[in-house]
């Protein structure tokens, strides 16, 4: 990504999205000038409103000022626990979220696991997410540097 001007750096805003009453979970939207970074996506159930807690799409709509689809510059998946990746397969699969770039953790490198001891599960949410992101990948352009 191109260098960010100092004036943009002063406009950094970080939004911690509402994860409701379910234990743990993270979804963070960072805005730096015109750039957006989405880090994680909460629990699978965070896609929809639950009681007083709005769903992730509803919160993104409020923060970004428009309805889906939401385009972010960078999607970061910190690790592949369901309270961090839960909502992403639905968001990406429905076309509600697109990302220019994605940094996605490898589920085979989790805590306490030897890489060769884990059998990839094509049905795992992180594998479905990776497949969806790869399907929508754009060709590299020299201007992407």
Shape: globular
Q: How far do the termini sit from each other?
A: 6 Å
The domain count comes to: 1
- Quote the beta fraction: 15-25%
The biggest beta sheet, please? 5 strands, mixed
Strand count: 5
CATH architecture title: 4-Layer Sandwich
Helix content: 10-25%
- Low-pLDDT regions: 112-120
CATH superfamily: Ribonuclease Z/Hydroxyacylglutathione hydrolase-like
CATH topology (fold) name: Metallo-beta-lactamase, Chain A
Order of helices and strands, N to C?
HEEEHEHHEH
What is the alpha-carbon Rg in Å?
16 Å
For the residues shown, what is the average pLDDT?
78
Helix/strand-derived category reads alpha/beta
Per DSSP, the total helix count is: 5
- The CATH class designation is Alpha Beta
Strand order of the largest sheet: 1-2-3-4-5
Could you characterize the architecture of this molecule?
- The protein has 145 residues and is α/β, with parallel strands linked by helices.
- 23% of the residues lie in helices and 21% in strands.
- It has five helices and five strands, in the order H-E-E-E-H-E-H-H-E-H.
- It has helices spanning 6-9, 56-64, 82-85, 88-93, 125-135; strands spanning 13-16, 28-32, 35-39, 70-77, 97-104.
- The chain has a five-stranded mixed β-sheet.
- Residues 112-120 have low confidence and may be disordered.
Gist of the model:
This protein has five helices and five strands, in the order αβββαβααβα. It has 145 residues and is an alpha/beta fold. The protein has a five-stranded mixed β-sheet with strand order 1-2-3-4-5.
